[in-house]
Write a structure and sequence with these properties.
The complex is a heterodimer of chains A (about 325) and B (about 290). With about 325 residues, chain A is mostly helical. Chain A has helices spanning about 5-10, 15-55, 70-80, 80-110, 120-130, 135-145, 150-160, 175-180, 185-195, 200-210, 215-240, 245-250, 265-275, 275-305, and strands at about 60, 65-70. By secondary structure, chain B is an all-alpha fold. In chain B, helix 10 crosses helix 14. The two termini of chain B are about 35 Å apart. The chains are: A mainly alpha (about 325), B mainly alpha (about 290). At the A-B interface, helix 2, helix 4, helix 5, helix 6 and helix 7 of A face helix 1, helix 3, helix 4, helix 5 and helix 10 of B.
C-alpha cells in the first residue's frame, strides 16, 4: 500500500501520506469496534435487500437458473386474488389491534399510576403474559378457542350463549387473533407507565393551583405529554402487526377460507412451499413499500399531534 | 388547591377528601383486579388442563381443579416427543446467540458511545433507520445465501447472524454507556490504555444491568423463535422446541392435556427468567421505549 502512491503526489505534498496514516489510525479503533454491525449491515441487511429487489424481477425455483421476467411478477400479483386478500387481512388486523393496544395499554398505565398499594403485584401480573410468545402461546390460545371444549365457549355456554367456532369460523377467526393479541397488552403498559412517571409533577401542581379537574389534567397535561411515547408505540405496533406469522401459521394456517391469510404467511408459502422465490421476493417488496408508506403517513401526521418539549407549537 | 366554599345545603352530601380518595382507590383496585383476572385465566386454564386425566379434559361444565391431579401427564408429554433433544437444541442455539449478541452489541455500542470515528453519525442514523425495517425483506436472499453455504439443516443460520449486533439492543446499550461517567476512561487514556482495555476493563465491568437486559431479550427472542427455525431446520433431530411442539400438535390433535403440559414446560424457562430478573426486563423495555 505504502509503495504504490503516485510519485507526483508525494512530491507535491510530502506530508500527505503521513496525514492519511494519522487519519487511519485515529479512526481504526472506531471502525474495529463498530465492524460487527457495519459488516452485518452489508451482509445481512443491505446486500439481501438489493438481492431481493433483483429477485423480484425473476422467476426462480432454486433448481433451474433464475430467469429475468421484468414486471411479470407485478402483473401476476395484480390478478392474484390472494395478494389482495393477504394485504386486507393484515391491514384489518393492524387497524383493529394497534388502537386497542394503545387504548388498553394507556388505560391500564393510568390506573397503575395512581399510587395505590400493590403496584408491583399488578405490574407483574399485567406484564407477565406479554413476555410469553411463540408456538406455546399460540397452542394455548388454540385450546382456549376450541369450539366444543375450549374455555371461552364453555364460559359462554354457562350463561346460555352458544359461542361461535372462533378459529374455524370465517367471520370470527381474525377477531379471535386480535382478541388474543390483547393478552400481551402489558408490554405497552410498562412503557406508558414509565412515560407517565416521567411527566414533571410541577405541571400538575400548577394545574391544580389553577383549579383544573382531574379530567382536564388528563386531556391537557397527561395526554399531550405522552404523545411522543404514543407515537413511538403506534409506529412499532403497526410494523409488528404487519409482520404476524406464528399465530396464523399455528392456529389457523391462514384459514378458514383465507380469512387469516397474513401477508408474511402468503410470502412464506410462495417461497418455501411453492418454491416461487422470484414471486415471493416481489411480494416482500410490495409489503415493504406498503409498510414504508404507512410509516411515512404516520410520521407526516405526527407534526400535528405529537408534542415535544421545547417545541414551539405552530398554529 | 383552591378551596371553594360549598353551598350549605350540599354540605352533607359531599364526601370528604379522604373518603373520596379511598373510593377512587377502591374503584381502581376493582378495575385492575378484573384485568388481572383476564390475564391469568388463560394460564390457569392451561395449567388445569395439563394436570387432568385425558377424560376430564372434555367435561361440561368445566372442572377447574383437576381431580385426581395427574403429574404423569408431564412425563408422558416429554416422552411422546423427543423433548429432551429439542430442549438441548434450543438451549444450544439460545446460549450461543446470547454470547454473540452480548459481545457484538456491546462492542458496537461502545464505538457509538465512546469513540470518535469517521462515519459514526451516518452509520448511527442508518442503524436507527434499520429499526424500522421489516425483517421479511431479507428472508429469501438470506435463505439463498445460507443454502449456497450448505448451512441448511444446521444451527448456523440461526446463530451466526447474532454475532453482528442488532439495532435495538445496540441502541439500548449505547444509551446506557452514555450515562456512565467519562472520567474513568479519560484517566485510562491518559495512562496510555488502548480502546480495547477501556472497553473490557472499564466499560464492561460497569455494564452489568445492560448486559443482563441483552441476555434477557435475546433469550426470550431465540427461545421462542419460529419462522427461521421453520425455514432452516429440516430433520427432526435438529428441531427446536417451537418446531417440536408444532409436530406434536399435528400428531395428536386430541390429547390437549399432553400438549398443554409440553407447552407449559416450554414456557417454563422464560417464566423462571421473568421472575428472577423482572427488574431488568422492565428497565430494558423502558430504556428502549421511552428514552428516545
Amino acid at each position: 500500500m505504502m509503495m504504490v502512491p503516485a510519485r507526483a503526489a508525494a512530491v507535491r505534498r510530502p506530508g500527505r501520506w503521513r496525514a492519511w496514516h494519522r487519519w487511519l489510525r485515529r479512526n481504526c479503533d472506531g471502525w474495529f469496534f463498530a465492524s460487527p454491525w457495519i459488516i452485518g449491515f452489508f451482509l445481512w441487511t443491505l446486500g439481501p435487500m438489493v438481492a431481493s429487489f433483483g429477485l423480484a424481477f425473476t422467476e426462480w425455483d432454486l433448481i433451474t437458473p433464475a430467469r429475468f421476467v421484468g414486471l411479470e411478477n407485478l402483473r401476476t400479483m395484480l390478478s392474484d386474488r390472494l395478494v389482495a386478500q393477504s394485504l386486507q387481512v393484515t391491514t384489518i388486523y393492524a387497524v383493529a389491534s394497534v388502537p386497542l393496544h394503545i387504548v388498553f395499554g394507556m388505560a391500564l398505565a393510568l390506573l397503575l399510576n395512581t399510587k395505590i398499594a400493590g403496584l408491583r403485584f399488578y405490574r407483574t401480573a399485567f406484564y407477565l403474559p406479554s413476555v410469553l410468545s411463540g408456538v406455546a402461546v399460540a397452542l394455548l390460545w388454540r385450546w382456549l378457542f376450541s369450539t366444543e371444549f375450549g374455555l371461552i365457549n364453555q364460559i359462554l355456554a354457562c350463561v346460555g350463549i352458544q359461542g361461535p367456532s372462533w378459529l374455524g369460523d370465517q367471520r370470527w377467526a381474525l377477531p379471535s387473533l386480535v382478541l388474543m393479541s390483547i393478552w400481551g397488552v402489558g408490554g405497552g403498559t410498562i412503557i406508558f407507565l414509565a412515560g407517565l412517571q416521567g411527566i414533571p409533577t410541577e405541571l400538575y401542581e400548577a394545574a391544580e393551583a389553577d383549579g383544573a379537574h382531574s379530567w382536564q389534567q388528563l386531556f391537557h397535561i397527561t395526554l399531550p405529554m405522552m404523545t411522543p411515547v404514543l407515537f413511538f408505540q403506534l409506529i412499532a405496533g403497526v410494523i409488528n402487526a404487519l409482520q404476524v406469522f406464528t399465530q396464523a401459521f399455528i392456529m389457523t394456517n391462514g384459514g378458514p377460507n383465507n380469512a387469516t391469510l397474513f401477508a408474511i404467511l402468503y410470502l412464506y408459502r410462495n417461497a418455501f412451499e411453492y418454491q416461487r422465490m422470484g414471486y415471493a421476493s416481489a411480494l416482500a417488496w410490495v409489503l415493504f413499500i406498503y409498510i414504508l408508506i404507512l410509516t411515512l403517513l404516520i410520521f407526516r401526521s405526527s407534526t400535528s399531534w405529537v408534542y415535544y418539549e421545547g417545541d414551539i407549537r405552530r398554529g | 388547591m383552591t378551596i371553594r366554599p360549598m353551598p350549605r345545603h350540599l354540605k352533607g352530601l359531599r364526601l370528604g377528601l379522604k373518603q373520596r380518595r379511598r373510593l377512587t382507590h377502591a374503584l381502581v383496585h376493582a378495575a385492575l383486579l378484573v384485568g388481572v383476572f383476564f390475564m391469568f385465566i388463560p394460564l390457569a386454564w392451561t395449567i388445569s388442563t395439563s394436570l387432568k386425566p385425558a377424560g376430564d379434559v372434555y367435561l361440561f361444565p368445566p372442572k377447574w381443579i383437576p381431580d385426581p391431579v395427574r403429574w404423569e401427564n408431564y412425563r408422558e408429554a416429554v416422552t411422546a416427543i423427543p423433548f429432551a433433544r429439542y430442549f438441548w437444541n434450543t438451549s444450544v442455539i439460545t446460549i450461543l446467540s446470547i454470547i454473540g449478541k452480548v459481545i457484538s452489541v456491546t462492542m458496537v455500542a461502545f464505538a457509538f458511545a465512546r469513540l470518535q470515528w469517521w462515519g459514526r453519525n451516518i452509520f448511527f442514523m442508518v442503524m436507527l433507520a434499520t429499526m424500522m425495517l421489516p425483517t421479511h425483506v431479507t428472508l429469501i436472499p438470506q435463505f439463498v445465501m445460507f443454502k449456497s453455504l450448505g448451512w441448511i439443516d444446521t444451527f448456523l443460520p440461526l446463530i451466526v447472524p447474532q454475532f453482528f449486533g442488532g439495532p435495538y439492543l445496540t441502541f439500548l446499550a449505547r444509551q446506557f454507556f452514555l450515562t456512565l461517567p467519562r472520567d474513568l476512561d479519560d484517566a485510562a487514556r491518559i495512562d496510555g490504555c488502548s480502546s480495547l482495555v477501556v472497553y473490557s476493563r472499564i466499560i464492561l465491568p460497569m455494564s452489568k444491568p445492560v448486559v443482563v437486559m441483552i441476555v434477557i431479550f435475546v433469550f426470550n427472542g431465540q427461545w421462542n423463535e419460529f419462522l427461521n427455525a421453520l425455514i432452516y431446520l429440516q430433520s427432526q433431530q435438529h428441531f427446536t422446541l417451537a418446531l417440536g411442539l408444532r409436530m406434536f400438535q399435528g400428531e395428536s390433535a386430541a390429547s390437549w392435556h399432553l400438549l398443554m403440559a409440553a407447552s407449559l414446560l416450554t414456557m417454563l424457562p422464560v417464566l423462571a427468567l421473568f421472575f428472577s430478573a423482572q427488574r431488568y426486563f422492565i428497565q430494558g423495555i423502558v430504556f428502549t421505549g421511552v428514552k428516545q
